[in-house]
Each structure stands twice: as structure tokens, then as C-alpha cells.
């Protein structure tokens, strides 16, 4: 479901924030800052929220030992140049506080989606919107910002022999191959890497599917 503003590429977004310790993942740029305790985490977020304009783009998930920071426009996760510019400003504030932005240590950043195969997405979407308490017209999102997004993948014919709900895990582009390898080492099977590095299709030992996704390979070819 993640998107980027017109004229903005995933390659540019990734290059802009990479050395700042952020990563582009699914329509947003994110990082994690390790903290000593909840008080330090709260103080950091208060400091960042005071940066002019950041509250329009910034979301923060506070824990006792870390803060997950995500820049985008909400709730649709629409990445804009303004969000990218804020990453540099916020990183300077993080460093001034004596802390470090690190998007890749300890699986720091990822985004989760649930994909539902459907012959008629319009027919089943109201059920999922109601049962989850979500919002949206095409893809669905949690208005509380807590649960994974849900999107609908069109089928041309019923496939009763195949599970029709799978999980998409979007991770930083430089984390994806290791995540795939770890899943295979844990007993998984590679069903397809035809679209890699955009995504790999994996299955657990009973055939339940999951896709590991990155941004590479998703930008339109240069004209």
C-alpha cells in the first residue's frame, strides 16, 4: 500500500536517508533510537516534536529501551520530499541529544501487511473493514496506527488448494536477503525469487506463505 509522491523515486528516497541511519520501507522512512529508559525516550520525542513542521509527518512509538521514528504523511504512508528533508533535521537533533539513529541493528525497522486474495475485492472489503475496525476504500488501514495494513490481490479464478491470506513483511533493502536466508534456515521453502529483489515468496513447512519485500526493483525504469 505504500506510495511515494509524483516525481520521487524509491532510489532517491533511500539514497537521501541512508547515511543518516534511516531506511525507506513501504512509503515511509524510519529509524530506531536506543534509549536508557522511558523518560529518555519521552524527552527525545518531545524534543523532535518541537521541530517546526515535524508533527505533520512524524510518528513515534515509544518503548523503555527505544523509540521507533517514522516519517511519512498519514494515514496513507505517502512519502513526500518534506518528509525526507525532515529526516536530516531530526537526525541532527538526535545526535545533539547524544543518541544515534540506527535503522538496521536488531531488526529495527520493518512494515507488516496482510494480503487477501480475492475474486471480488469490492464484495469482501466491507467485511474486513468492519471486523478489523479499519478504514479505507482500496487498501485498509488501522486508524489507531497499531495494526498492519490490509490489501486485496485480484485472482482470475478460485484456488481452493492454496491458502488465500498471506503476510507481507517489508524490510530495508539491505536487510531483505538476510531475512530470506534466516527464514530458509528456520525450515522455510523458497517458492519464487522471480521478482527479487522486489520480493521473495516463501512458505513454512506446511505451505503457509509469506513474502519478504524491499524497495529495490519497484521504481519505474528511467525514460
UniProtKB/TrEMBL annotation:
Gene3D superfamilies to which the protein is assigned, alphabetical: 2,3-Dihydroxybiphenyl 1,2-Dioxygenase, domain 1 (3.10.180.10)
Keyword check for Ubl conjugation: no
InterPro entries noted in UniProt: Glyas_Bleomycin-R_OHBP_Dase (IPR029068), Glyoxalase_6 (IPR041581)
Keywords: Lyase
Domain Glyoxalase-like: 114-212
Entry EC number(s): 4.2.1.96
PANTHER family: CONSERVED PROTEIN, HYPOTHETICAL FUSION PROTEIN
Protein name: 4a-hydroxytetrahydrobiopterin dehydratase
Amino acid at each position: 500500500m505504500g506510495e511515494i509522491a509524483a516525481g520521487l523515486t524509491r532510489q532517491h528516497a533511500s539514497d537521501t536517508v541512508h547515511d543518516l541511519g534511516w531506511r525507506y520501507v513501504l512509503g515511509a522512512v524510519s529509524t530506531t533510537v536506543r534509549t536508557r529508559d522511558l523518560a529518555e525516550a519521552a524527552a527525545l520525542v518531545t524534543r523532535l516534536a518541537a521541530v517546526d513542521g515535524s508533527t505533520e509527518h512524524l510518528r513515534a512509538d515509544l518503548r523503555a529501551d527505544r523509540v521507533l521514528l517514522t516519517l511519512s504523511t498519514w494515514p496513507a504512508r505517502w512519502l513526500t520530499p518534506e518528509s525526507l528533508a525532515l529526516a536530516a533535521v531530526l537526525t541532527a537533533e538526535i545526535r545533539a541529544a547524544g543518541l544515534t539513529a540506527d535503522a538496521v541493528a536488531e531488526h529495527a525497522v520493518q512494515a507488516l501487511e496482510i494480503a487477501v486474495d480475492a475474486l471480488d475485492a469490492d464484495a469482501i472489503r466491507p467485511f474486513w473493514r468492519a471486523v478489523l475496525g479499519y478504514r479505507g476504500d482500496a487498501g485498509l488501514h488501522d486508524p489507531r496506527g497499531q495494526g498492519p495494513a490490509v490489501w486485496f490481490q485480484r485472482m482470475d479464478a478460485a484456488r481452493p488448494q492454496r491458502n488465500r491470506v498471506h503476510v507481507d513483511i517489508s524490510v530495508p533493502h539491505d536487510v531483505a536477503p538476510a531475512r530470506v536466508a534466516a527464514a530458509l534456515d528456520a525450515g522455510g521453502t523458497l517458492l519464487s525469487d522471480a521478482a527479487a529483489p522486489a520480493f521473495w515468496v516463501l512458505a513454512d513447512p506446511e505451505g503457509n506463505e509469506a513474502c519478504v519485500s524491499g524497495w529495490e526493483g519497484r521504481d519505474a525504469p528511467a525514460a
